[in-house]
């Protein structure tokens, strides 16, 4: 598991929480900030997934990206 997957999930959850608080308090700026945080988290997770996939394929091929 890549660190981006973890930090991405944290950002996603933080964004969802901000959206909820923004909705409850009637603060559209906080809600919008939450939307951005959630999207940023999803992108980080996708990047981490891609790195994980590349490393897995590299190991199957008998090489390791980290050895270079």
List keywords for this structure.
mainly alpha; 2 helices; 68 residues
> How would you describe the shape?
rod-shaped
Q: Please estimate the helix content.
A: over 70%
Quote the beta fraction: under 5%
Rounded Rg: 17 Å
Helix count equals 2
Flag low-confidence runs.
Answer: none
* Major beta-sheet overview: none
Short description:
The protein has 2 helices and no strands. By secondary structure, it is mainly alpha-helical.
Task: Describe this protein's structure.
The chain has 68 residues and is mostly helical. The chain has one domain. It has 2 helices and no strands. Helix 1 packs antiparallel against helix 2. The longest helix is centred in the middle third of the chain and has 33 residues. The radius of gyration is 17 Å and the shape is rod-shaped. The mean pLDDT is 91.
How do the helices and strands line up, and which of them pair or pack?
Blueprint: H1 3-25, H2 28-60
């Amino acid at each position: 598991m890549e660190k981006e997957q973890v930090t991405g999930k944290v950002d996603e959850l933080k964004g969802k929480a901000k959206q909820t608080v923004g909705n409850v308090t009637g603060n559209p700026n906080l809600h919008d900030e939450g939307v951005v945080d959630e999207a940023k988290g999803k992108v980080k997770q996708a990047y981490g997934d891609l790195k994980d996939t590349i490393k897995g394929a590299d190991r199957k091929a008998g090489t390791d990206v980290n050895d270079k």
